[in-house]
Amino acid sequence: MDKLNNPEYYYNRELSWLLFNERILGEARDRTNPLFERLKFLSITASNLDEFFMIRVASIRDMVNAGYSRPDIAGLTPVKQLQELTSAIHKQVELQYSTLNKVLLPRLSEAGIRLILQHEDLTDKQKKYVDDYFMSEVYPVLTPMAVDSSRPFPLIRNKALNIGALLSKKSGARGLVQTAEKRKKTNKDSYEFVTVQVPGGLPRIIMLPYEKDEETQSIILLEEIIERNIGKLFLNYNIVCAYPFRVMRNADLSIDEDEAADLLKEIEKQLKQRQWGDVIRLEVADDIDEKMLKLLKEEFDCSEEELYRIQGPLDLTFLMKLYGLPGHEDLKCAPFIPQIVENLTPERDIFAEIRKEDILLHHPYQTFQPVVDFIRQAASDPGVLAIKQTLYRVSGNSPIIQALARAAENGKQVTVLVELKARFDEENNIVWAKMLEKAGCHVIYGIVGLKTHCKITLVVRREEEGIRRYVHLGTGNYNDQTAKLYTDLGLLTCADTIGEDATAVFNMLSGYSEPLSWHRLVMAPLWLKDRFLFLINRERDNALQGRKAKITAKFNSLVDQDIIRALYEASQAGVSIDLIVRGICCLRAGIPGVSETITVRSIVGMFLEHSRIYYFENAGSPEIYLSSADWMPRNLERRVELLFPIDSVPLQKRIIHILDVMLRDNVKAQVMQSDGTYKRPDKRGKEAVGCQQCFCEESVSTSKRRKVEAMRLFIPEMHEDE
Predict the structure, then answer these.
(1) Where does a domain end: 520, 550, 579?
(2) Radius of gyration over alpha carbons of the chain, in Å?
């Protein structure tokens, strides 16, 4: 067997992802973070885990059910993966709730905020308030669902929070269906089951009025109010017990694109089915009545491994709502305001600025507004003939969508590829696609068999010198909201070679045209993987020949085995390789004789690291690329992605600085050990460096310096006028 195929040199993708979620959980446990930030991180771990179950765990379960037994690159069969995942997830959930109950809730109470987890703990005044609230706000919305011979067990929606109850008939009471004559004789231990869905349209967090002479703000969750008042929904019954429960279903869409006559309609149909996929996880209160638990397990065909007994509120994503409560600013990080790019303010001619030089944008440290203005100015500019753009994920009230629609209404030729298969954004993208079509845009619904994940905008403009093409390329989505939270890089250029390639990209997306040659852009799934392998192997060869050789790469995930093998070979040749990998990493660093020269670090901070940067030393003539692609098979083989170069020397220096600061981070970085675990770097005797904080400070400093320089230029002109 080829030595580099040894499963011991690789880490399982799913277990690696769990380690990433554990690093986020570490931020919730980090005492140096403000309390509300810790609550937010805990909420993120819960949201992440939900999606992980619906897609990744569901996928592995499907493989097990289908009898698929081929091991992954780490040597684990689907059955073995499921076993190890189940054990690891149960431990992670226990740590989540231990963090909440033993650490965060006591700190919250000390800060004057009391979360009442049991309605029995309410004071008399609070009981009256929640009872009145229930009757006025909640009761009209609820739909109790009974289960009997005429009413089968209701379909429980994916991720919806529910309250199940066991009832016993009151003596002498008559029900609508079960009269005394119809009712079967049962013993006194026989109960009837009912369920009530907690309405998603109502606030889950309910603020309670202050008690006399008390400064503590008490909060209760909606499900506790419903549980307290559930008897009002079943007046002829006694409530034996009531407990919350929640199910997670397989939500991975299965679309046969070759057979789908209309991809839009097929995805709309699949979205409806997502709510009713097979149950893969059942969450219940840890003290649930055993009779009810048996009923739920049988109804959902749930094994003990798929059962999660929760010691606290189900679905911790409510903590994000708690984070959003007004006030309590002292318990949060000071909000960062993305800085204005001085030469790209709305009143400036953005096309004139791009003609001067290529422009690099670093979000969220610099505002995303120039990207929006790029589309807006193009929409109203009489010289602009066409706008072409790819959209993967956009915000709920996207200014870019509005600008594209206005451009079409102004007579521009607007072509938009809206990727309908963007996971969990399918419904949102369908809405935008239909709106753009109504405005007169030509909308493409992706490509059969591929997801279009690249981020590119092309503006074709008639100028005195002739037709000129302006291009924006990015590592992140055209989403003005996530651009405030995700770190990404974008390039604005009017370089002829990139403009020609951009035209070729859209011609390929909209038709079947492929140019004879490409200049600067590299596209997946056609050539991108081969290009990366060439660049890595070139560093290997340079090292073997005694030339300068170095690779520094920042991205989200590393899974592709061919890429990992190439990195191992480069390391064996002596190439210095520094990888900044936010999430999944199947490569193991520091293995003697295999990956001794490779370091892997992950940075988890207040912003989500999302940019993809690839640096290759190239024997002293560095090449730097940005991309929408990670080093994963799906990005390199099953998606339309782009790799684009940074040729400007000043912009190269900026990117090298970004990488250098991230490699010096000893505050939020964690470094992979040879066994695949992560540890924070030892910073004893060293200056504390947090890269995100550093970039925030630099962007503010740069913005202030430019304002001062502008004033210095402006003041002499005022003096001369006087």
Answers:
(1) 520
(2) 29
Phi, psi of 44 (to 5 degrees): -65, -40
Whether residues 401 and 320 fall in one domain: no
CATH of the domain at 472: 3.30.870.10
The single-letter DSSP state of residue 314 is: S
The predicted-structure confidence for 241-299, as pLDDT tens digits, reads as follows 999 999 998 877 555 544 444 555 655 555 555 455 789 999 999 999 999 999 999 99
Q: What is the pTM of this model?
A: 0.90
Does residue 500 share a domain with residue 376? yes
**Domain membership flag for residue 238:** no
CA distance 679 to 673: 7
How do residues 300-327 score in pLDDT, each as one tens digit?
Answer: 999 999 999 999 999 999 999 999 888 8
Considering the domain architecture, whether residues 682 and 705 belong to the same structural domain is answered as: no
CA distance 624 to 614: 6
Active site (catalytic) residues? 453
Its domain, for residue 90, covers 1-117+314-326
CA angle 534, 539, 542 (to 5 degrees): 120
> Do 543 and 660 share a domain, yes or no?
yes
Tell me the DSSP string of 69-91: ----TTS--HHHHHHHHHHHHHH
First-to-final CA distance of the chain: 84
Opening angle at CA 605, ends 604 and 611, nearest 5? 70
